[in-house]
Amino acid sequence: MIKKILKSYDYSLILAVLLLCGFGLVMVYSSSMISAVARWDYASDHFFVRQSIFVAAGFLVLLLAMFFPYRAYLQPVFLRSVVLISIGMLLAIFVFGSVAGGARSWFSVMGFKLQPAEFVKLSVILYLAAVYEKKQAYIDHFGRGVLPPIIFTGFICVLIILQPDIGSASIIAMIAISMVLCSGLGMKNIVKLLILGLAMVVLISPLVLIMWDDIFTTERVSRFTGFMDPFADAGDSGFHLINSYYAISSGGLTGLGLGESIQKYGYLPESHTDFILAIISEELGIFGVLFVLVLLAFIVLKGFHIARSCDDAFGTLLAIGISSMIGIQTAINVGGLTGLLPITGVTLPFISYGGSSMILLMLSMGLLINISMFVKYRSVYQKDEVKKTAELKGNAVPFQQN
């Protein structure tokens, strides 16, 4: 049985993750080696060493999640604990959190930064997958089957927005929308949700107007003005985006060469986090960018294929949530550094520097690989066992009494 289980694992997903992480380590070192010394007075390999620790810890988490049956997460005690811990961390951040980049979004623990919003993404995915599996019998009942999970997700998003972390809140909201749309809702309930959303916008609008100056600070507004016309304020709001353009355009097809970026010399302050793909484009050209995006697309599409093949609602929605999270986060990051979307501080999955993001992504991939294993095991080996059992029964010689 163990041999059959091991054969059922999707090793192409594991390989894709390892390739992305290995490539990300190289680019974290290349993009941060100058700023580590010049900006923070660290050793040139400071961020590379830390990211190596994050990747190693994340891979251990991935292995544990791979071998732990995903259906076990349906236990009510576990789900309640996850929800309560998530809410508790988001509330505690306002008291014990550290401020960085204008947001109180991190806990400082033994020299490392922990970002609760990253782990809350997976908590919301687990919660919605579990709730909507339970509600399949009355999924079209708006009051019982649709509304409660939406209210919970909205509450989580509000807590994250108040930090403020618009990027993470947007990702969670879009993940929730993708899971809700795939949960089996009828068109009538989808229309009701749209009407409810519009009604909430109308109700909240007066409050937004009253708190306009507190919500739309100069820094937040500058992200939109920099997105709309970066060259209007090239030295401030448009600084990051313009230098991202320079990095992308100077790379061309083949790039300037690994380690030869100019923009990482202080022109792109977040060169190893939010804008690492711009440095990849500058050093390795369009081929380096395609290498990353093709692998990420493979993971996302593979995840949706796993969801389609899964024969239970929990596994299906879990795979959809994880795939959507990686796809949405990639789209927002790429959109930000290319000027298609406002810059939100969202990192590129598996590539950008960051411990919380890496651990979350590895845990999520472990879950997805475990779902894939059970899908293949049930479709191949269990069917073979049923077939063999049926054949043995058909060929059995009836007992004849003398």
Give structural notes.
The protein has 402 residues and is mainly α. It has one domain. The protein is 71% helix and 3% strand. It has 14 helices and 3 strands. It has a 3-stranded antiparallel β-sheet, with helices on one face. A hairpin with a 2-residue loop joins strand 1 and strand 2 (103-109). Helix 2 runs antiparallel to helix 3 (46-67), helix 5 (116-134) packs antiparallel against helix 6 (142-161) and helix 5 (116-134) runs antiparallel to helix 13 (313-338). The protein is globular, with a radius of gyration of 24 Å. The model is unreliable at 396-402 (pLDDT under 50).
Provide the fold topology:
Layout: H1 2-8, H2 11-38, H3 46-67, H4 76-96, E1 98-100, E2 103-109, E3 112-114, H5 116-134, H6 142-161, H7 166-181, H8 187-210, H9 212-215, H10 218-228, H11 239-251, H12 276-309, H13 313-338, H14 355-395
Antiparallel strand pairs: 1-2, 2-3
Helix pairs in contact: 1-14, 2-3, 2-12, 3-14, 4-5, 5-6, 5-7, 5-13, 5-14, 6-7, 7-13, 11-12, 12-13, 12-14, 13-14
Q: What are the secondary-structure elements, in order, as H or E?
A: HHHHEEEHHHHHHHHHH
The low-confidence parts are: 396-402
Helix content: over 70%
Task: Give the overall shape, derived from the CA principal axes.
Answer: globular
Q: Beta-sheet strand percentage?
A: under 5%
Mean pLDDT: 86
- The DSSP helix count reads 14
**What's the Cα radius of gyration?**
24 Å
Query: How many strands appear in the DSSP assignment?
Result: 3
Count of all domains: 1
SS-based class: mainly alpha
